[in-house]
Each structure stands twice: as C-alpha cells, then as structure tokens.
Amino acid sequence: MLLIPTTDTASSQLRAHPVTDGRKWNALLRALPVHHVLQSWEWGEFKARHGWTAERFAFQRGTDVVAAAQMLTRRARPLPVSIAYVPKGPALDYADRPLRRAVLDALAAGGRQRGAIFVKIDPDVVLGTGVPGADDEAPDPLGQEVAADLGERQWRFSPEQIQFRNTVQLDLTQSEDALLSAMKQKTRYNVRLSGRKGVRVRPGDDVELLFRLYTETAARDRFAIRPLAYYRDAWGSFLEAGLARALIAECEGEPIAALILFCFGERVWYMYGASLDIHRDRMPNHRLQWEAMRWAKAEGYRVYDMWGAPNLFEESDQMWGVWRFKSGFGGRVVRHIGAWDMILSRPWHRLYTSVVPRYLALRRSLRNR
User: Fold this and answer.
1) Nearest CA to 233 among 19, 26, 95, 43?
2) What are phi and psi of 188, to 5 degrees?
C-alpha cells in the first residue's frame, strides 16, 4: 500500500491503491495528461527481472483516477539500505498544485515505508523549449513553477540525472511535405540521396542481428553496452508487446544500420541506433530516421521524440555530435525539469554517494583485468 499524509484537504480527498493488472495499468496511464513509456507496465516488469521491485499505484479522487506512479526499489549494494525511483513520473496534471503536492508527499512517505534512503523522480515536465540563448528559446511557466515548488518543498535537484533532460521532438501531425520542408537543406538532401543510392529500410525483430550492429557501433564510438541477454529482454519484450518497432537499413541486401523505437500513448521515442562503418557515404541513418517518422505518422502517433540532446549546447558537450545530426531534422528542442531527489536519510545518502561509486569502479576495474 501507499499511505497519503493528510496534511490538507486535497490530500485527505485522495486515495492510492495498488494496480496489479498490466492492461488496466497501461490504460489508466494513457488516459493521464503526462505519461511516458518508462512508466508502462512492461518497463516495470523488465526492471523487475534485473534487480528492481516494481509497484504501481493509482491515485483516485472520488471515482476518477487523477494520478499514477510506478515506483521501482532496489538494494543499494553494498549498503544494507534501499533506493526508490519513479522513472519519468509520476503521471498527473502538474498544473493541479494540490494534487501534485499530495502525490509527491505520498511517494516520499512510500519510500520511507520501504526503507529507502532517497526517492528519485524525473517527471516529463517541460522547463522550456528552444536552445538556451537562441532566438527560439522560450521558458515554460508551468515547468518553472513546478521546479521552484520542488525546491521549496525540500526536493533537491539531483546531481545524478538518469534520463536525458533535453530532447528533440517533431510534430507528426504535419504532412510529410511539411516535415521534409522543416529539415535543414543538407539533411533533406541526404534523406533523398540515401534512397537514390539504394538504401532500403525494412522492419525487423532479429535481436541478435540488432545486437551485432549495436556492438560494432559501441566499439567504434567507445561506449559501454550490456550483454546480449539484457537486450534480448529489453528489446525483445517490448517488440513482443507491440511497444517497440525495429527498422533495419540494407544496401544490396546487407544490413548496415538499424534503429529501435519505443512507443506509448501518442509518442514514439528513438531509443537505440546502430550502424556499421561500411556504406556510410550512402547516409543510411538519415533514411532510417525518415522512414521511422513516416511509419510513426502512419500509425497515428503525434510526437516523434529523438531521445536526447546536450545538457549544454556547446561543442564540449559529449552529445554535441549526436545533436548536430538530430538538429538537421528540424525538430523542436524540449528541455525538462530533470531528476529531483527527496533525501530521507542524510547519513546513508552521504555513504551512498561516496562509497558506492568507488565500489562500482573497483568492480569494473577487477572485471576488466
């Protein structure tokens, strides 16, 4: 259960109850104004197979479900304590201040009940749009209010941001011609060039092939990946559930690039991309993005989320190269409020932030040897 501290009228009118049916959970989540694939039933089940405990709670006001939160908890090894995380949640109308305060108070209390040393949230609340300092920069008043309110209520902006704070989104309610017109000239040229040079895109669900492409990408770009079994679960379970779509670019019948979309509600997210070094002059990644957008639009999705943009829009940011590619498609930069922590035990939290990183670094060092 999740107890709601009754500090005011709004919280006294709210009731939280666990949800144990996957279809029911996804349906009520989709009906809420702010929801995300990382709050889906399938994401919680996936994380539960990898060391977390997943609990889902629906918040009712009268007979109406007005909020939902999937809380993940796990042991903070090597410490004898737990941590709690609500990925890209909770889901609710953030303009309803009494509701959001009551739900966040309940999550903090729930973390305390479960012995967590902190509760982390990173709700999908927009702080502003556009590149900071550019002509298109625009703050979002609601996001500014929510961030200020969190700080006033002892939530702390987290130094550990699990998800990307910034992203690039495209409006799929536009026509295909409008989407092409919004692209930078070079990007539009590369999309068309790729088709002329024989790159063909097809759907695919061969996880081992996707992993091979991803492995070669990781080796080239020097980022760490997990074993095949992890992606067989992560990708395979979402593909099987109909919440993911994999597209593979081929040249002369040979797979040379791929991407994986995750889908939920009205949005798709470009979560994973992979490509080989061969035939890069044929621009397969440009063609993949365009065909992914066309597929998502045809399926009725309204937003194409490119999942990740720099924290700092400067060349020193590690996402700068990725950003240059994504920016060519003419999407809008969307900046979120990021992750916030409610620290429930300061002594344990200090140990967790100082001891655990050294412990994990030592484990990696020993494993590499």
Assistant:
1) 43
2) -60, -40
Which residues does 132 contact at the CB level (< 8 Å), separation at least 6? 313, 335
Proportion of the chain in helix, strand, coil states, percent, rounded to 5: 40, 25, 35
**9-159+338-368, CATH topology level:** Aminopeptidase (3.40.630)
Cite the residue boundaries of each domain of the chain with CATH code 3.40.630.30: 9-159+338-368, 168-335
Q: Is the pLDDT of residue 285 over 90?
A: yes
Q: What angle do CA 215, 159, 332 make, to 5 degrees?
A: 65
Per-residue CA distances from 38 to 126, 171, 184, 195 (Å): 17, 21, 31, 34
Directed axis angle between helix 228-241 and helix 41-48, to 10°?
150
**8 pLDDT more than 80:** no
Q: How confident is the model at residue 1 (pLDDT cuts 50, 70, 90)?
A: low
Chain center to CA of 252: 34
Is 71 in contact with 86 (CB distance < 8 Å)?
Answer: yes
Any long-range contacts for 320-326 (C-beta under 8 Å, 24+ apart)? 323/168, 325/285, 326/168
The Cα 271–Cα 174 span in angstroms is 22
> What topology is assigned to 168-335 in CATH?
Aminopeptidase (3.40.630)
Rounded Cα distance, 146 and 248, in Å: 40
